[in-house]
Amino acid sequence: MFEEVRRALESYDTIIIHRHAKPDGDALGAQIGLKHLLRENYPEKRVYAVGDPAGRYGFMTDSEMDEIPDTTYEHALAVVLDTSAKSLISDPRYQTAAATVRIDHHLFCEQIAEIEVDDPSFESCCGMIAELARESAWRVPKIAAESLFTGMVTDSGRFRYDATSPRTLRLAAFLLEQGVDTESIYRNLYADDFSRLKQRAEFLLKVTVTPHGVAYLYNTAEEVAASGLDTFSVSRGMVSLMADIRGVDSWVNFTETDDGVLCELRSSRYDINKIAVKYGGGGHKKASGATVKDRETAMQMVHDLEALGEENND
User: Fold this and answer.
1) Helix (H, G, I), strand (E, B), or coil: what is residue 62?
2) Strand order of the sheet with strand 287-292?
3) Which of 55, 201, 260, 308 is surrounded by the most beta carbons within 10 Å?
4) Helices marked H in the chain
């Protein structure tokens, strides 16, 4: 599966790893994991990870990005991880590299690199990097294993989402065998202060459920500012509040920003990716995102989600 990717990795002395902006656990985990896999197995190579700050995943070891000059790209291989569209890549300098590779598990949107491995059957990009390591018989240092396991856990919803497969659990076991400290990972991912739990309850009270099984949460810029939370913590962090409401098949979290309204779409039953694509976004069949211009457009998206439910229940 990764033969061409492996040949490219072995051909360059300098490798620079990119991922999407505003990283989640999967993007950051894949990036840190691959960086340390390469450093462990090819110690003569110079390997860097670049991009915007780690945000709420700053607890992950080596999550601070490398700062490198533009000249580093001249004879380098740029590897783009967990990204389906060029516009989402953090640090556009990947385009100036001597060669490019992409490894991704999203539904295909556009070609980004010269060599691409895109497999939506994987629950996470971290799962793909773990498979690359296993297939290559690489040594897996603990930091790589913990980074990859963190990404697998977050993108599979703690192994609950239906993208979780027997392969997912086999690769998770492969990583656990490297000495992963699951207690530390889960504590950092899911332990919350009491004040934060109260805050989540306040957001939950704002949820609206439509007659056709769609739940949505709309967060104005003023509400985000008043919460004291960063945009990611409101947008990506609060969408899961609606995941287990009985009778709700699709849900979306809207968050106003200076650049538009961020939309996090999810479904337990339907392919909502086509709706995200309609509004300029993308992702997975049951977990996608987009950015729309205003609240009115956001409400049109809710109507589209309702229509999708009605269509599938006819």
Assistant:
1) coil
2) 208-209, 214-219, 250-257, 260-267, 287-292, 282-283
3) 308
4) 3-11, 25-41, 125-136, 142-155, 166-176, 182-190, 194-204, 221-227, 231-238, 273-278, 295-313
Phi, psi of 15 (to 5 degrees): -130, 130
For 21-41, b/e burial (b = at least 16 CB within 10 A) is: ebbbbbbbbbbbbbbbbbbbb
β 260-267/250-257 pair status:
antiparallel
Q: Which two tokens stand for residue 160?
A: 């609950």
Residues 147 and 32: their CA atoms lie apart, in Å, by 6
Q: What letter represents residue 44's amino acid?
A: E
212 has a pLDDT exceeding 90: no
11 touches 5 (CB < 8 A): no
- Provide the whole-model pTM: 0.80
> Which residues are CB-neighbours of 87 under 8 A, at least 6 positions away?
none
Tokens of residue 193, six digits: 């202060």
3-state helix, strand, coil in the chain (%, to 5): 45, 20, 35
Q: Which pLDDT tens digit goes with each residue over 130-178?
A: 999 999 999 999 999 999 999 999 999 899 888 899 999 999 999 999 9
As beta bridge partners, residue 145 has none
* Phi, psi at 69, each rounded to 5°: -75, 160
- CA distances, 265 to each of 89, 240, 284, 286, 300 (Å): 20, 10, 10, 8, 13
Strand partners, 66: none
Nearest of 98, 138, 95 to residue 12 by alpha carbon? 98
The total of other beta-carbon atoms located within 10 Å of residue 312's CB is 12
Q: Which residues of 224-237 are buried (b: 16+ CB within 10 A; e: fewer)?
A: beeeebebbbbbbb
